[in-house]
Amino acid sequence: MQLGASELAFVLLLSGVFSTLFASPLLAFDLGQSTRCVTIPNQMKVCKDVGYSEMRLPNFLGHSNLEGEVVPRSEDWRPLLQTGCHPQAQAFLCSIIAPVCLDTFIQPCHSLCVAVRDSCAPVLACQGHPWPEALNCDRFPAEEDMCLTPLSKFSHFMKDLPKAVCQNCPSVEVAPATKTVMSALCHHDFAVTAKLHRLRHPTREPEFQVEGRVEFIRQGPLLPYDTQHLLRDWLLINLSCASALVRPGRSQLYVLTGSVQPDGNIALVRLFPWHKKDAGIALATRKWKHHRC
After folding, report:
1. Which residue range or ranges hold the NTR domain (predicted)?
2. Structural domain harbouring 177
């Protein structure tokens, strides 16, 4: 029997560093053992808005101590979920670390695990982490059993949107000449201005945001309603590149140029930090309105 999202309302995306989980061995979970239902606590923000309010303990990783294990380890997933690597990533992860409290155990299907792994494992690799052995897809049931299935409508939706992926860090050119900026505008699919901001968090990984509106110089195939989130996803996936672009607690305005690959993935190619004294960038953006490459 397949269990879709309509039965569990299970697919809201949430914001989201793996730590001890990467080193944890695969824990056997006995479906016949005694379990208890508890309310998902407010401090377990990764799964608080997943679509149900009670979870089973022990969970499918064998964790039974809510305050000592489950809640603190759930925070390890936040950076991955923040990247938006898959629309059902939260549903998949929460079905394991905070399984819904029903009359029967509901695990993710093998096919859902594969779908999330194929989209999210490259993001983890970009950040220097392997896909955790504890999430080996072979441990999850086939779709003939009662389990949480992938939703086909999301796979079609994802194909239609440009996607941020792991890439080599783009070149950053300070105080460029007008000719240099004009060349980048002509040779790349899109160019935008965006203010990148890095929050200061003393106890966890840096978090990046795109402040205010993204302004198009050359829109190309980018979608106006999606570009701000797209750039934020790029920053969160390419953390080492992003960390070199903006200092903690600071904001920096950039002209970002790049290309969209045939598979829909975007690649940022040349970045120009735009300071007040950069007359070359200001002149290039004015000339571009009437320029022919």
Report:
1. 166-293
2. 163-288
Instruction: Kindly report the three-state secondary structure assignment for every residue of 199-263.
Output: ECCCCCCCEEEEEEEEEEEECCCCCCCCHHHHHHHHHHHCHHHHHHHCCCCCEEEEEEEEEECCC
Helical packing angle, 110-126 and 89-97, nearest 10°:
110
- Looking at the fold, whether 120 and 8 belong to one and the same domain comes out as yes
Does 78 map to a domain? yes
Contact 108, 137 (CB under 8 A): no
- For residues 132 and 175, membership in a common domain is answered with no
Residue 216 contacts residue 222 (beta carbons within 8 Å)? yes
Pick from 289, 253, 254, 283: which is nearest to 180 by CA? Answer: 283
Dihedrals φ, ψ of 273, to 5°?
-65, 130
113/168 same-domain check: no
Q: How many domains is the chain partitioned into structurally? A: 2
- The answer to whether the predicted template modeling score (pTM) of the entire model surpasses 0.85 is no
Position 168, amino acid: N
Name the E strands within the chain: 2-3, 36-39, 54-57, 107-108, 147-148, 163-164, 171-172, 190-199, 207-218, 251-260, 265-273
Same domain, 60 and 78: yes
- Residues 265, 162 contacting (CB under 8 angstroms): yes
Q: Select from 144, 159, 174 the last residue of a domain.
A: 159
pLDDT digits (tens, 9 = 90+) for 213-241: 999 999 999 989 899 999 999 999 999 99
Are 200 and 173 found together in one domain? Answer: yes
How far is residue 160's CA from residue 156's CA, in Å, rounded to a whole number? 7
* Degrees, nearest 5: CA angle 93-99-105: 125
User: What six digits make up the tokens of 113?
Assistant: 């695990």
Residue 197: pLDDT over 90: yes
Question: Is residue 68 in a domain?
Answer: yes
Q: Mark whether 106 and 186 lie in a shared domain.
A: no
Q: Fill in the amino acid letter for 82.
A: Q
| 128 and 209, same domain (yes or no) | no
Give pLDDT, residue 124: 92
